[in-house]
Amino acid sequence: MKVADVIGKLIEIHKVYQADSGFDDTDRVTADARPLADLKGFESDFIPEVVRRVARELGAPLPKGTRVKNIYVERGRKLTIREIARKLVEKYAPKECQV
Q1: CB–CB of 6/53 below 8 Å?
Q2: 27: how many CB neighbours lie within 10 A of its CB?
Q3: How does pLDDT run along the chain (99 residues), one tens digit per residue?
Q4: Domains of the chain, each with CATH number or no CATH
Q5: Which of 70, 63, 16, 4 lies closest to 43, judged by CA?
Q6: Which of 28, 41, 45, 89 has the CB geometry, 3.0–4.6 Å to 93, for a possible disulfide?
Q7: Is the dihedral of CA 64, 19, 44, 95 positive or negative?
């Protein structure tokens, strides 16, 4: 699982969330967007589902019972999709997939 692939998948998934929530601002979903600050309607409750979906769709599903933490925030700062992707790979990608 490469960080660039995770960034692409996060952008794709967040665009779907925006569209499904009725927000017509999918063009705002970029690698530098901060989902918890910049994207209307996205809430921290969605994070575990998004992380699991990214891992599954990139061929490295999380083991059953894995507790997903809030990787969208660090020391009180809301992170960009690019930063979230790095954290996702560090925390949840199998070691052999961390490239």
Answers
A1: no
A2: 8
A3: 899 999 999 999 999 999 988 988 889 999 999 999 999 989 999 999 999 999 999 999 999 999 999 999 999 999 999 999 999 999 998 765 544
A4: 3-97 (1.10.1200)
A5: 70
A6: 89
A7: positive
Residue type, 87: K
Contact 11, 30 (CB under 8 A): yes
Among 72, 58, 47, 80, CA closest to 5: 58
pTM of the model: 0.91
Q: Which pair of tokens denotes residue 10?
A: 């996060």
